[in-house]
Structures are given as C-alpha cells and as structure tokens.
Amino acid sequence: MKKFINTPKLAVREALEGLAASNDAVCLLSSTNVLLRSDIPSDPKDRPIAILSGGGAGHEPAHAGYVGKGMLSAAVAGDVFTSPSVDAVLAGIRACAGPAGAVLVVKNYTGDRLNFGLAAELARAEGIPTEVVLVADDVALLEMSKDNARGIAGTVLVHKIAGAAVEEGMGFADVVATARAAAADLASMGVALDGCTLPGAERSGFDLGEDEIEYGMGIHGEKGQRRGPMAEADEIVDAVIGTVIAQLDAGSNRVGLLVNGLGSTTPLELAIVARRAVMGLKAAGFVPELVWTGNFMTALDMPGMSLTALPLDDRRAALLGAPTAVRVWPVEASAPKQPIIVEDGGAEAAEVLGGTARPELKRAALAAATALRQAEPDLTRLDAETGDGDLGQSMLRAAEALEALPDGAFADPATLLAQAGMALRRVIGGSSGPFYAAALLRASQKLQGVSSPGPADWLGALRAGCEAISDMGGAAPGDRTMLDALAAAHEAGNAPAAGETVAAAAARGAKEGAARTAEMQAKFGRASYLGARAMGHQDAGAAAVAVWMQALAS
C-alpha cells in the first residue's frame, strides 16, 4: 500500500513535528508525543484550566489538530490506534496544567480509560486538580450499556464546549460538569464501506465484500452492529440517522449535527450525506441549528462516515459557536432557517411544442438513447484511461434527455435536431454538452424547411455539425477528438461500398475513425496533457459517436 511515510515507527512523531513546524500556536514536547499550546505560561500558578485529550494516532485531525485557544491545551498521541502511556499523559498534564486544574476528555476505550485515569490519579497526588470526562457516544450497539459504548466523533464537540467554557472564565467544577453533560447527551453512529490500512501494512486490516458495508463501525476498524448490502446514500443515511435519533433526549428539539468523514470519503459524498441527515432530523421533528461537515475524527484512510447529534440549548449553542484559534475548526456552522432552494429568476421557460411525432424520427432518437445507455460502462472505462472518466455518465444523461423529449420535438427533422441540442446543452457537463449543442443546432439550420431529407441532405447536416464543432473548439480531424469519428462518418457516407446504405457507411466510417484515434497524438482535451501516454487508447468522445451512429444505422 503506497503511503507518504518514511519509517512506520516514526510516523506519529514526524506528523506531530509537521504540525508544530507549520503552526506557531503549538509546540511539541521533546521527550514524548505531546503537542501543546505555545502560549502556556511557564509558571504553573499562572496557567488557566487545562483541557487535554488524546489517544492513538490515526484519527487526524483529532486530537492534535484541535490544540489551540478555545479548544485543547494539549493532545497526547500514542502510536496508531494505540493508547498513549500513563507517563506520556502525565507529562502532558505537567506541561500545561497547574493549580487551576486539568480536564481530560477521554474516549471510552479500555486503554485510554486506564492510562488517562491513572495519569489523573498521579496528577492529583502532585497537587493538580484533575478530572476525567469520558465520552461514550457510539449508539450503534444498542444491546450494550452506555458504560461500554465506544467514544467516537462526538468527542470533538466536547473539546469545543470545554475549551470555550475555559475561555469564558467558567470555574473548574462548572467546566467539568458542562463537558460531562454534553458527553452524556451525545449520540453517534458510523458506517464503513471498507477497512483502513495502517502505516507499513500491505493491505487493509479487514475486507468487506464488493457489495457489503459495515454499520456501527468503530474508529479503529472494529466490527460494528451488522453488515448489510451496499445501497444508495439516502438509504444508508436513513439507517444511521434513525438509530441516532432514537437515542436523543426528546426534551429538546434543537440539535447540532456533525457529519464526519472517516478518512477517504470525499467532500462531495459528505455533502450528500449531510443533505439527507438534515432531512431526517427535520422529518423527526428536530431543528438542526448547527451543522458541521468534514473530516473531524478519522480512521486513517477508511471510506465511511459517522453522524453525531447533540441536543442544544442557548448555553450549549453559544459555547459551540464561540471563536477559536484552532485552524481546522469551521468558522461558522449555523444552519439556514429559511428554505434553501430559491426560485431562479434566470431560468428558461420550457418551450411548448405542438405537432405530431413522426414515428421514424422518434424511433431513431430512442435507438440512439438506448445504445448510449448500454455503452455507459465502456465509455466510462475509455474516458478514465485518458481523461476524467465522466463521459459515460454524460452520455447516460444525454440518453435520458432524448427519452424525455416531448412528442412535439419529433414533428420534423429540423425541430428534432434543435430540441435535442437544447436538451443536451442542459444536461451534459464539460465540453461535450456545448459541442453537441452547437453541432445539432447548426445541423438543424441546414435542414430548415426540408420535411423529408434525403441522404445528401443528412450528409450536409452532418458536415454543418462538424464545422460547428471545429469553429467552436478549434479542433480538426487528426487531433484525436469526436471530430475524427464524425468527419470519417461524413467521408464514408459520401462513398458507400456496393450494396451499402449511406447510413451504414457513415456508421462504419465513425467506427473506423474512432479506432484510429488510438494512434493519434491528442491536441485537445484532457488526453492532451498525457502526451505519448494516451497512445493506444481510443478517444472516448469519438467512441460515443460510433455508438449512436451504429444505432441510427440499425
């Protein structure tokens, strides 16, 4: 497994050194893996209440990423997924705490609970008032008692609340009580799509089947509540948020929602998760006032997410929204109180088309749509080899747009080409949409007033479409684009073989032109960035032309 590490046993230390080297608000103890605020007074008597947390590394940005004014005074890091030692925790307490006291925010894992707990006893014996706030927010394993529940992503909300309480000037006992009350009210649950890989390991610590996911996964790769089949995002989120909601205190309908990525989940996916989780809370009668989305408590490179809900009142909301100097904490988390969808004043009105559909035109358009739909996997694979892999989905959207055209769009050839161009312009992203729209609109103009085009008329429309693409993008045949298939179709259609229809000849030409792109140097598009590395791979746009050309010929 490829990783940006040097020696696995030094990975945690070097990561902490990187944090300290890039942020003047923190510093690192020389003898142990403790990151602390750089503004802590040297005289213990001058130190405010200290908030410490930590545990095994691998959950970044937790915990070291939360060291700073308004959150943690120090973070104690163990090896990956391994609790730090008692001595390391005690060193952290000594480095940042004094008579004002220390609050240790600890996830409910045996190693963390024991080592932080013993360090607290030793610190108290040295005269430092020290209390442990245990976070056990994982509600996935409902048959277990709350005392045995794991501490997961909700821990970071306790960091924020406790740190803000200290900055506000709250006394030691009140800080402890406020943090414990928040920890008791938290409800979290995660789901993983696959395992995670430790530094130096060749493969993931466990494997899920191609169609399996794990509900209730822990943040160290521990098994969860159950395994289930892969499903759409909404179905997965509904299962998770439903379990979380069932554990919320019904006394308050105001909640904060933490949408947390486990390491390899993209921001796009997390936003989709957030959308559905907010909907689920609202449907259950809750008001999500604060929403945080991002990577807060990860499990190395695990693909997955967790949802955390925390009941709010004015006091707790103010602490969560208080300013902090911690760089990775979102500046703002207020959720909108008004509708999030507003009317688009610039939207085009849909054109109402009259006329009766001509069966042969509709049959041809639907045949092209079916062919593009069936070719989606192959087009995606082709595009991924030299581009960004989105052409298959773009052509699938094109197919759906053609299938959705009203009957009036099939009244005559010119109308069909114009309406298809407008529809594809709206649904296809990237460069393909504008190119298809321009080509179809230019071809439509060529057929204006021609009710029953013959082969020469259709070839003239095809040529006009090629010219539109060339005029807009600057490409020419031989540049390894969709034009290579279109131009070859035009050429072959003008010289069909004996017994070959013009349509069949054009389809043959498109297929041959697309195949030739594999030996061309790309001058346009993403493949042009690859230079010689694109050789040997067909241009996906040209291949798509061959697909729908063959469908029309059939």
TrEMBL record:
A Pfam entry, by short name: Dak1
The residues that cross the membrane are none
Q: Does the keyword Nucleotide-binding apply?
A: yes
Record's Gene Ontology CC terms? cytosol
Q: Which residues form the DhaK domain?
A: 7-329
InterPro entries, per this entry? DhaK_dom, DhaL_dom, DhaL_dom_sf, Dihydroxyacetone_Kinase
Give the DhaL domain ranges. Answer: 359-554
- Any one of the GO BP annotations: glycerol catabolic process
Query: Mind listing the UniProt keywords for this protein, alphabetically?
Result: ATP-binding, Kinase, Nucleotide-binding, Transferase
* Superkingdom field: Bacteria
GO MF assignments: ATP binding; glycerone kinase activity
* Gene3D superfamilies with a match to the protein in the record: 1.25.40.340, Dihydroxyacetone kinase, domain 1 (3.40.50.10440), Dihydroxyacetone kinase, domain 2 (3.30.1180.20)
The name under which this protein is listed is Dihydroxyacetone kinase
